[in-house]
Amino acid sequence: MLKKIFVTLCLLLVIAIGVGGFFYVKIINFANQPLNPQFLMSQPKPFLVIEKGTSSQKLAQLLAERNIVAETHWLPYFLRLSPSLGKFKAGVYSLENLHTVSELLAHLNSGKEVQLNAQFIEGKTFKDWREQLRNTPYLTQTLADKSEQEIAQLLAIPHTKLEGWLAPDTYSYVPYSNDLTLLKRAYQQQQQALSQIWQQRKIDLPLASPYEMLILASIVEKETAVASERPKVASVFINRLNLKMKLQTDPTVIYGMGEHYKGNIRKKDLLEATPYNTYVIDGLPPTPIAMPSRASLEAVAQPDSTDYLYFVADGSGGHKFSRTLAEHNRAVQEWIQLERKKQRENLNK
């Protein structure tokens, strides 16, 4: 009798070991199972969003719904064998360069959320930036039906125009964050830069406020793409303001023309009275005309000490600076002749 019981127990033990071994192999195979390549190739950047408090059952359901992993019912059993991989951290995770279920779980435990970049260029207007926001991938759009004034109110900006108030830079963001959050960061960064640079300005500048510095920096930004020239360009405008001369700068005229600008400025455009026509108005225009970089803000706060009052393109990307109108007129004629020569050479090609 005891012998039969012993044999039965041994048989049951063998069966249990066999069944346990079978399930163990299944679980290990599940852990080493490759992620579904069709899902990984279905979008440019495959992401997985893990919400706070996600359990192993909920993760298994998510992986099944997204068709990322097959036979997800093995997931809770695998996590019993490897409990350290069950501490998922909420966030948005890239699935790029992940190959197996175990690699995926390790990644979800790392807390290393994917970061994307949005680059906002200096010298652009808010209209340009807004179009870029609309086309920024994996960014939740909340401002599509908002006017510029409404967006300014959401950012707590005390103006109806957003030109100048947002810092050009490359901003990292997590997929599915929203467009307003990105603009808030750009506004806060510009505010910090404006405050800091204003405190470090030359004390004799003809600028009454940080906002006037912001306006002039936007003009400098539009006038030259040569970084080394910015303090010199700024000095021309500072000198003109000190002498009560009109700024006479084309970018402000273009900004004031708005949609009417078709690529060139006519004589009647220079004579038309608009708030931004610095050939007509005295002093600065009422608002910035573009998003100035920190370098342009610094150039206005610390301009070169010069007696230049004019500048014109030199034909090589930079500018020629002049002290008198006669010098400037000669420089203009030199530039015209150079442009005509280039046109003739292009026609002969």
UniProtKB/TrEMBL annotation:
Record site: Important for catalytic activity: 223
Catalysed conversion reaction: a peptidoglycan chain = a peptidoglycan chain with N-acetyl-1,6-anhydromuramyl-[peptide] at the reducing end + a peptidoglycan chain with N-acetylglucosamine at the non-reducing end
Keyword line: Cell inner membrane, Cell membrane, Cell wall biogenesis/degradation, Lyase, Membrane, Transmembrane, Transmembrane helix
Highest taxon listed in the record's lineage: Bacteria
The EC number(s) this enzyme carries: 4.2.2.29
GO cellular component: plasma membrane
HAMAP family per UniProt: MltG
Family assignment from sequence similarity: Belongs to the transglycosylase MltG family.
Protein name: Endolytic murein transglycosylase
Lineage: Bacteria, Pseudomonadati, Pseudomonadota, Gammaproteobacteria, Pasteurellales
